[in-house]
Amino acid sequence: MIKSILVVSASIFMLGAAVAADMPQAQPVKAQAAPVGKAPVGKAPAPIVTKG
Protein backbone atom coordinates (compact mmCIF):
# COMPACT_ATOMS: atom_id res chain seq x y z
CA MET A 1 0.00 0.00 0.00
CA ILE A 2 2.77 2.43 0.94
CA LYS A 3 4.73 1.56 -2.19
CA SER A 4 1.74 2.21 -4.44
CA ILE A 5 1.10 5.60 -2.81
CA LEU A 6 4.78 6.46 -3.27
CA VAL A 7 4.70 5.44 -6.94
CA VAL A 8 1.50 7.37 -7.62
CA SER A 9 2.77 10.52 -5.89
CA ALA A 10 6.10 10.35 -7.75
CA SER A 11 4.24 9.91 -11.04
CA ILE A 12 2.03 12.92 -10.35
CA PHE A 13 5.10 14.97 -9.40
CA MET A 14 6.89 14.04 -12.64
CA LEU A 15 3.75 14.75 -14.69
CA GLY A 16 3.44 18.17 -13.05
CA ALA A 17 7.08 18.99 -13.78
CA ALA A 18 6.68 17.94 -17.42
CA VAL A 19 3.56 20.07 -17.87
CA ALA A 20 5.25 23.08 -16.25
CA ALA A 21 8.24 22.75 -18.57
CA ASP A 22 5.99 22.85 -21.64
CA MET A 23 4.17 26.02 -20.65
CA PRO A 24 5.16 29.16 -22.61
CA GLN A 25 7.17 31.79 -20.79
CA ALA A 26 7.05 35.53 -21.39
CA GLN A 27 10.01 36.77 -23.40
CA PRO A 28 11.21 40.38 -23.58
CA VAL A 29 10.35 42.21 -26.78
CA LYS A 30 13.37 42.90 -28.95
CA ALA A 31 13.90 46.57 -29.70
CA GLN A 32 13.86 47.23 -33.42
CA ALA A 33 15.81 50.05 -34.99
CA ALA A 34 13.64 52.68 -36.64
CA PRO A 35 13.99 52.73 -40.42
CA VAL A 36 16.10 55.61 -41.65
CA GLY A 37 14.76 57.19 -44.83
CA LYS A 38 16.78 59.20 -47.28
CA ALA A 39 15.87 62.54 -48.77
CA PRO A 40 15.17 62.69 -52.48
CA VAL A 41 18.22 64.16 -54.17
CA GLY A 42 17.55 66.50 -57.09
CA LYS A 43 13.77 66.37 -56.81
CA ALA A 44 11.55 69.28 -55.87
CA PRO A 45 8.38 68.69 -53.89
CA ALA A 46 5.18 68.38 -55.90
CA PRO A 47 3.30 71.68 -56.33
CA ILE A 48 0.12 72.18 -54.30
CA VAL A 49 -2.85 72.60 -56.64
CA THR A 50 -5.96 74.27 -55.26
CA LYS A 51 -9.28 74.98 -56.92
CA GLY A 52 -9.97 78.70 -57.07
Describe this structure in words.
- This protein has one helix at 2-22.
- It is mainly alpha-helical and 52 residues long.
- The longest helix has 21 residues, at 2-22.
- The radius of gyration is 32 Å and the shape is rod-shaped.
- The model has no long low-confidence stretch (mean pLDDT 81).
Please mark out the parts with pLDDT under 50 across 5 or more consecutive residues, or reply none: none
What is the overall shape? rod-shaped
Q: How much helicity do the residues have?
A: 40-55%
The averaged pLDDT comes out at 81
If you compute it from the alpha carbons, what radius of gyration comes out, rounded to the nearest whole angstrom?
32 Å
Number of helices: 1
Instruction: Please indicate the percent range of residues in DSSP E strands (runs of 2 or more).
Output: under 5%
Q: Determine the N-to-C terminus distance.
A: 98 Å
Q: Give a quick account of the main beta sheet: strands, pairing sense, barrel closure.
A: none
Give the total of beta strands.
0
Assign the structural class, choosing from mainly alpha, mainly beta, alpha/beta, alpha+beta, or little secondary structure: mainly alpha
Question: Secondary-structure element order, as H and E?
Answer: H
